[in-house]
Design brief:
The chain is an alpha+beta fold. It has helices at residues 3-15, 27-31, 52-61, 103-109, 119-122, 128-227, 230-260; strands at residues 41-43, 48-50, 67-69, 92-94, 99-101, 116-118, 281-289, 297-305, 321-326, 331-336, 341-346, 352-356, 362-366, 374-381, 384-389, 393-399, 404-412, 419-423, 426-431, 437-442, 447-452, 462-467, 473-478, 481-486, 491-495, 503-508, 514-518, 523-527, 534-538, 547-550, 558-563, 568-573. The chain is built from seven helices and 32 strands. Strand 27 and strand 28 form a beta hairpin.
Length: 586
């Protein structure tokens, strides 16, 4: 044995000296209150220790049980009582459940366990020194790991403070630069104000002097009239006339100078368009994994300092395929009735026409003289539409290219509706005018909701209505806004963009994205369901001019758009690589 091994062996023996002699007691006597009666024998079948007296009695009652005397009985005792049965010793260990058990617990709780053993038998081959040394080593390793992690956390906390200070310094630097910039602008405004004021002060001084001359002349004339002769009055009048004419000439020159004098109206124009967010910078926290000598998670703070920043999320723009279909009318509203056919209301005529978007044919299928005047239409499913008539009915029809094929049913609504939308067997009707409100009806004609919107300050002149696919949001186009309402009429949000002017026509896809015509801005916007972003997908460069009506075929990526005064529709085939442009102001 080497010196090192011998030393380690002595150390381990010293640390784990566990060979203290223990004497087992009689379990029966223990239960009777005699806690220190030594055991003289052991019953293998009963797994119980007995004193000499109790062992004799046990042999008489159980002559077939195997008895072991004091020298042969198990010497590895576990003198602890069961947590469930306080008067019973722990005698067994279940390897299946990894827990100890007394005789009662063995029967009750481990009936089906195959690996339950008598503790003295189980530990015969147990090397207690080796096992406890391994435990000691594991504990020491855990202590080292705790210390290491503690160092990581401490270092990380220092990094957090460092990054925090760096970010604040950057913010202070930018704040200082921005303040200096606005100080310069303010000084420019002050300089302009000084110059403008000086110009007007000159005129103001001349006016004060002229008023004094007029007052003096007026006083002289009044005195002359009272105290002097007619000859003197004559001469005084002539002199006064000359002076008054001089004053009038001077005032004329002053007025001319004043009319030519310019004053400055201050208009502050940011470097780019008006920010949607009032902040001038953005803090972004980046997370990254760390090595053993760093914090488990680091925060990297990056300051993006700019008054306004344009961010492009680009899928390269490819010009969409399109073709134009000439019509004999302006389409007020459009909806699909099949893959190739549209249904349209003719503007001012309120007649219904079908349009084949493949070959451009169109056909009038219903007019006011033959049946009723249509004010709004919406698709229910393929070849089935709902028509809102001016005489107060929702009419459900099967429609083909050639005619109104079959009348389904009608629902009476008491007032003249402006626009209709349909979603999941519910109709939504928008009413304009002073009592602006929205009504919803089920397929049986039962009024479900009456939502007043005349009292919403954001809603001035609603034009069109759309409903989300899950029937929980209503969208309205109104003035220069697209408005989001909950089903109880609460304004949840609104979308406004400087490049979307007078939104009119509107369509919605199955994901809830909106397609909105900008009638004055000559474009079409795609807006996300939550209004978090919106961007132009079609515009003047694609030939749009006063777009008024729109519908969409999601499967075919088609957007038919009708323009007012053009008597045609343009059918756009959007590519999957169509670009996305989001303007973001930090």
């Amino acid at each position: 044995m080497t010196e090192g091994t011998e030393t380690a062996s002595k150390t381990d023996t010293k640390v784990y000296e566990l060979d203290e002699e223990m004497e087992m007691f009689c379990e029966f006597c223990y239960k009777d209150g005699k806690q220190n009666q030594p055991a003289d024998g052991f019953c293998v079948e009963c797994v119980t220790y007995f004193c000499a007296t109790c062992l004799n009695y046990h042999e008489k009652f159980h002559p077939n049980h195997t008895q072991q005397d004091k020298d042969k009985m198990p010497q590895d005792f576990y003198i602890q009582t069961c947590s469930q049965h306080s008067d019973a010793l722990i005698k067994f260990y279940c390897l299946t459940c990894e827990t100890t058990a007394c005789s009662t617990s063995r029967v009750n709780d481990h009936e089906h366990c195959e690996e339950i053993h008598h503790l003295p038998q189980l530990v015969k081959d147990f090397d207690k020194i080796k096992e406890l040394v391994d435990i000691k080593n594991a504990i020491e390793e855990a202590e080292k790991e705790v210390d290491a992690i503690e160092l990581i956390v401490d270092g990380g906390m220092e990094k957090i403070k460092q990054y925090n200070n760096e970010a604040k310094c950057a913010l202070k630097k930018d704040r200082k630069e921005i303040n200096e910039l606005f100080d310069e602008l303010e000084n420019e405004v002050n300089d302009v104000e000084t110059l403008d004021s000086e110009n007007l002060e000159m005129v103001e001084g001349n006016i004060i002097l002229t008023k004094a001359k007029i007052k003096t002349l007026k006083s002289q004339i009044e005195n002359k009239i009272v105290d002097i002769t007619r000859s003197e009055v004559f001469v005084a009048a002539k002199e006064a006339k000359m002076k008054s004419q001089s004053i009038l000439n001077n005032l004329k020159d002053t007025r001319t100078h004043l009319e030519e004098t310019e004053i400055s109206k201050y208009v502050y124009v940011p470097t780019k368009k008006t920010p949607q967010d009032s902040r001038h910078g953005k803090l972004t926290a980046h997370k990254e994994k760390v090595k053993n000598d760093k914090l488990l998670v680091w925060l990297l703070v990056v300051l993006l300092s700019a008054l306004t920043i344009d961010i492009f999320l680009i899928h390269f723009e490819t010009s969409p395929e399109s073709h134009e279909i000439k019509l004999s009318f302006d389409p007020q509203q459009l909806c699909y009735i099949s893959k190739e056919n549209l249904l349209a209301i003719a503007f001012s005529q309120n007649t219904l026409h079908t349009i084949n978007i493949t070959d451009g044919r169109h056909n009038e299928i219903l007019n006011g003289r033959r049946a009723y005047t249509s004010t709004s239409i919406t698709t229910m499913k393929d070849n089935m539409v709902a028509i809102l008539s001016s005489d107060g009915y929702i009419l459900m029809h099967d429609v083909t290219y050639t005619n109104v094929k079959k009348y389904r049913q009608s629902i009476y609504v008491p007032k003249h509706g402006q626009h209709i939308a349909y979603s999941n067997n519910i109709f939504y009707i928008l009413y304009g005018g002073e009592e602006r409100h929205i009504e919803s009806y089920n397929m049986n004609g039962q009024l479900l909701t009456n939502i007043p919107i005349w009292n919403k300050f954001q809603i001035i002149s609603p034009w069109n209505i759309a409903v989300s696919p899950n029937n929980n949001i209503i969208y309205l186009t109104d003035s220069d806004l697209v408005i989001m309402l909950t089903m109880d009429g609460t304004v949840q949000g609104y979308f406004r963009h400087i490049d979307l002017i007078r939104p009119i026509g509107m369509a919605i896809d199955t994901a809830g994205n909106l397609y909105v015509c900008g009638y004055v801005s000559n474009n079409v916007f795609k807006i996300s369901p939550d209004f978090s972003h919106g961007y132009e997908i079609l515009g003047k460069r694609h030939g749009l001019n006063r777009p008024f009506s729109i519908t969409q075929n999601e499967k075919e990526n088609e957007l038919p758009v009708g323009s007012f005064g053009r008597k045609s529709i343009q059918v756009f085939k959007l590519s999957q690589t169509w670009f996305q442009y989001i303007r973001s102001f930090f």
